[in-house]
Amino acid sequence: MSSDLVRLHLKISINFAILPDVEPDENAIKIKDVRSYVIKSEENEKLQGSSAYYHKQVEGHWIDGTDQWPIANPMSLYQKYKSRRNSWGIGALGSVIVEIELTNGINGVGISIGGQPACYLIEYHFRRFLIGEDPLNIEYIWDMMWRSSINYGRKGLTIQAISAIDLALWDCAGKLRNEPVYKLLGGKTKNSLPCYATCYNPLAAKNLGFKGAKFPLPYGPADGDHGLIKNIQRIKDIRFSVGNDFPLMIDCYMSLTVPYTLKLLELIQPYNIKWLEEALPPDQYNGYSQIKKENRTTCLLTCGEHEYTRWGFKLLLDNYCVDILQPDVTWAGGLTECRRIVALASAYDIPIVPHGSSIYSYHLQYAFPNLPMSEFLLLSPNGDSISPIFGQLFHDEPLPINGWITLDTYKSGFGVTLNKTNLFRPYFNQNRTK
């Protein structure tokens, strides 16, 4: 090799040697099996729940919208789909539940949305990166899943499948170390978490002890001035019902435009709204940046529920799009990726309030100081009582008491036990990994 070529090589690479393959340590406990499940039937899913609101609900559930109050959403533009979110298939995929079994008999569990399509990816693509590996090599496994799916993934379903696997690995790691996951992340920065409720009736949330409440905006731009007037009346009525000092937030669920959002911010000023959430579709970074730049009110701007990976959140931060970020730990890349998102946000002094993902966000929030509170979704059909976010998928999901979540320091992993009664494994082919 000529000296010029040598100098060129030294300039473009810092790898002085080819790294050998990563192998489990001698006598390491390894991953024996990976199983992915969905809820057995539509009826079971409606009655028992699965993952937040992205599954089939009983008829009349507030989370899909009601006759009195619809929920503004990206499909509100179309008359036949505007009154109910389930009409256009918000719960079409449902949940995916991943169970990783280790050679010593320990099982770890992770959950996301994605249903049977996610199960296919897990069983027929990502499985090859798990079997026989050390479950504690989580960064290594995440990187292989990410790199191998770049050609078709990067966001959405693929990252949700990776998230479920990643969370199951962290559950395994906690159980192997006989410690809660938050201790693996560096220990706790708080003894318990204050919670706000996402709900239909903020007065019910206040009476249940929650520290604030978020409610959905009923109407969007397609409903014209009349819809805007009804939005303001709804906000005014809710503020009157809970009093002046109870924190209120509004979820716009990707349904608005830049001009509509700016007008809404102006009109809600008298009602002391803490934040306006996810006003635009997630890829409209310039639109979010414009709203933040032109916002002359004290209302904060938030988004990130439907954003993925550190690269998506870096765009939000670099473009000064928001005051608060809201990644969903079960969607955005799992705990491994959300740790990076938390670190990234801290460099911009932007707090994080994760989208409601129960135990999986609680442990992240315990471990880092820039995650000040938790979201809890009131998923009873009328939105007026507390029930587990994951329905009956776990026997022992922790619930808030008087608006506070406290994790059991003596429970290892994420501290919950999977209820497999109504689970179904749609793909089972251990040999198809190539």
Number of domains: 2
The main β sheet shows up as:
8 strands, mixed
Measured distance between first and last alpha carbons:
38 Å
Number of helical elements: 13
Helix and strand composition category = alpha/beta
What gross morphology would you assign?
A: globular
Overall CATH class of the largest domain: Alpha Beta
Give the percentage of residues in beta strands: 5-15%
The strand count comes to: 12
CATH H-level name of the largest domain... which superfamily?
A: Enolase-like C-terminal domain
Estimated helix fraction: 25-40%
Low-confidence stretches: none
CATH second-level architecture of the largest domain: Alpha-Beta Barrel
Q: Summarize model confidence as the mean pLDDT.
A: 94
**Rg, Cα atoms, Å:** 22 Å
CATH topology name of the largest domain, in short, is: TIM Barrel
- Please write the string of helix (H) and strand (E) elements: HEHEEHHHHEHEHEHEHEHEHHEEE
Pfam families: MR_MLE_C (PF13378), MR_MLE_N (PF02746)
Domain Mandelate racemase/muconate lactonizing enzyme N-terminal: 96-186
InterPro entries: Enolase-like_C_sf, Enolase-like_N, Enolase_C-like, Mandelate_racemase_N_dom, RHMD-like
GO molecular function: hydro-lyase activity; magnesium ion binding
Describe this structure in words.
InterPro entries: Enolase-like_C_sf (IPR036849), Enolase-like_N (IPR029017), Enolase_C-like (IPR029065), Mandelate_racemase_N_dom (IPR013341), RHMD-like (IPR046945). The protein has 13 helices and twelve strands. By secondary structure, the protein is an alpha/beta fold. The protein folds into two domains: 120 residues, Enolase-like, domain 1; 222 residues, Alpha-Beta Barrel (TIM Barrel). The strands form two sheets. Strands 4, 5, 6, 7, 8, 9, 10 and 11 form an eight-stranded mixed beta sheet that branches. The protein has a four-stranded antiparallel beta sheet with strand order 3-2-1-12. The chain starts with a helix and ends in a 10-residue tail after the last strand. The mean pLDDT is 94.
